[in-house]
Amino acid sequence: MPDIESVPDLKPRRGLLRLVSPAGAVQEPPRLEVAKAHLQALGFRVQAGAQVLARVQRFAGTDAQRLRALHDAARSKADVVMMTRGGYGLSRLLQAIDYELLAEAIKGRKQMWVGHSDFTALQLALLAKTGAVTFSGPMASYDFGDKKLDDITVDSFLDAADGTLEAVGFACDDAPRGLDVEGVLWGGNLAMVTSLIGTPYLPRAKGVLFLEDVNEHPYSVERMFSQLLHAGVAQRQKAVLLGQFTAYKLSAHDAGYDLNAAVDWLRAQLKPHGVPVLTGLPFGHVRTKLTLPHGVHTHVLRDGQEVFLFFPHAQH
């Protein structure tokens, strides 16, 4: 990636990318300017309305403003709709969103919606309500706001944006030998997934559940794992893929209890049900992240020390 200050003007090659702030307020506006420069250098025309930098308390504008931003994005001619950041806020909008409007843009006009973190709530609701495929991947301020970008993150996102995403792979030393399962790939942020249990916004998927989180102590992560078990969600899956769980602090009181202990506990609970738990997925609140098609039928298999996810119908 060239220095953003020396990037020449490029003729747009990848269409219009619209920035939306549907949740938390953008905390560092200069990062958004850096993100725009990066995305333009990658061949996108970048469009951002006034609401993108709005702030009401911790939110990127009022609920009505953020709802309108989502609907306006769906009505726009954008090829890609990218979230600026996560935070919290989409849960407040779920009852008011026009899902058919968004689904028509995604299914009918092949609009690509991408993000992670709090965006998971909208992804799950869209999948549950309409079956629309979105993408779990980078966000503008969070991922494209650094001066130097991560090559894997960029390449994976561009594969998805260009419609050439067919498979991803990652090193995994705890996948069972002979692993070969298929199902709908779904999930995202663990807190968002568990918050929608018992609501009409959680898909009844029996597939490949992927999870990540940030700022959650391992005991909190385990508590959410147990909620997925008590609700019968985890047992229905063909496999559970764990991404990165970051930015937590252990204490002396933990006495050796850590994230590995929480994962071992989940694996023990799911073993009688034949559901493998895999770790190492490059996804979460980290620099290096894959872009994953949320809601696509996926084939997962182990080859040597790597696990591969194949997406036969991932084109947006």
From TrEMBL:
Name of the protein in its database record: LD-carboxypeptidase
Superkingdom field: Bacteria
PANTHER family linked: MURAMOYLTETRAPEPTIDE CARBOXYPEPTIDASE (PTHR30237), MUREIN TETRAPEPTIDE CARBOXYPEPTIDASE (PTHR30237:SF2)
Keywords attached to this entry: Carboxypeptidase, Hydrolase, Protease, Serine protease
Active-site residue numbers: 117 (nucleophile), 212 (charge relay system), 285 (charge relay system)
Ranges for domain LD-carboxypeptidase C-terminal: 182-299
InterPro entries cross-referenced by the UniProt entry: Carboxypeptidase_A_C_sf, Class_I_gatase-like, LdcA_N, Peptidase_S66_N, Peptidase_S66C, S66_fam
Domain called LD-carboxypeptidase N-terminal: residue spans: 18-137
GO BP terms, alphabetized: proteolysis
UniProt GO molecular function: carboxypeptidase activity; serine-type peptidase activity
Presence of keyword Protease: yes
Family as reported in the entry's similarity comment: Belongs to the peptidase S66 family.
A Pfam match: Peptidase_S66C
